[in-house]
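User: Hi! I have a protein structure encoded as tokens and I'd like to know what sequence might fold into it. I'm fairly new to this, so please keep things simple.
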């Protein structure tokens, strides 16, 4: 698998510019996870995973707690998990995950964000086959060899472990997310630069100039939508 850490890293670098938006999206995701299962993260792995990811984005504890308390109450909103796939300029591919209480509204807004910025929506499965669902961890202060030893002792077969910009990156199977996380914590690693389930593109498309600007505008438009939780793509938006 290619090493697509830069896309994740670059996206995380933008987080401080959009804290209110990120907090709102995490609040909704935590609420949905808690409402679907036990509101206790120790017995609800989906909820625990969302909370751990929220911590890497510095989401305050009171926002996490408030979302869980809201899920404990009677009634409340119901959300559908939906995924849209589409194409951007230069043959780029995009996956959009959303939580919505109005699918018609969401699909209309997502289609418009694509269409106004040189892209178009595709049918289900038209893009996702070119991405791999992956558990990703970013660890500071541990070498590749040290991390590999931790994984081997826990009988976890990682897809890839490598170092980039002083951070050791781990790619593992999605169903090993919790086991890997527990193995790291048992080894004294409690803080991660990233700890999440994501979609890693199998190949990337390098964009420059106007195409790059247009694509970034499209991604911004998608991420700004209230119902959209996460956007994945295969564009290389590195320095020209």
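Assistant: Happy to help. Inverse folding works backwards from shape to sequence: for each of the 240 positions I chose a residue that suits the local structure. Here it is:
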């Amino acid at each position: 698998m290619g090493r697509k850490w830069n896309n994740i890293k670059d996206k995380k670098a933008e987080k401080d510019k959009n804290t209110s938006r990120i907090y709102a999206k995490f609040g909704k995701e935590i609420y949905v996870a808690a409402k679907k299962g036990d509101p206790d993260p120790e017995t609800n792995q989906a909820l625990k995973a969302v909370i751990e990811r929220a911590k890497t984005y510095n989401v305050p504890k009171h926002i996490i707690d408030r979302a869980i308390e809201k899920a404990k109450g009677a009634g409340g909103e119901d959300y559908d998990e939906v995924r849209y796939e589409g194409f951007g300029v230069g043959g780029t591919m995009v996956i959009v995950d959303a939580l919505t209480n109005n699918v018609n509204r969401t699909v209309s807004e997502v289609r418009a964000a694509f269409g106004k910025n040189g892209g178009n929506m595709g049918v289900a499965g038209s893009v996702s086959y070119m991405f791999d669902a992956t558990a990703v961890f970013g660890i500071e202060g541990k070498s590749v060899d040290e991390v590999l030893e931790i994984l081997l002792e826990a009988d976890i077969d990682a897809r890839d472990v490598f170092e980039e910009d002083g951070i050791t990156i781990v790619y593992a199977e999605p169903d090993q997310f919790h086991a890997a996380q527990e193995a790291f914590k048992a080894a004294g690693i409690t803080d991660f630069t990233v700890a999440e389930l994501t979609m890693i593109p199998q190949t990337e498309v390098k964009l420059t100039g106007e195409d790059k600007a247009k694509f970034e505008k499209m991604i911004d438009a998608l991420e700004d939508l209230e119902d959209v939780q996460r956007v994945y793509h295969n564009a290389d938006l590195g320095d020209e």
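A useful reference point when you look it over: The mean pLDDT is 89. Feel free to ask if any position seems puzzling.
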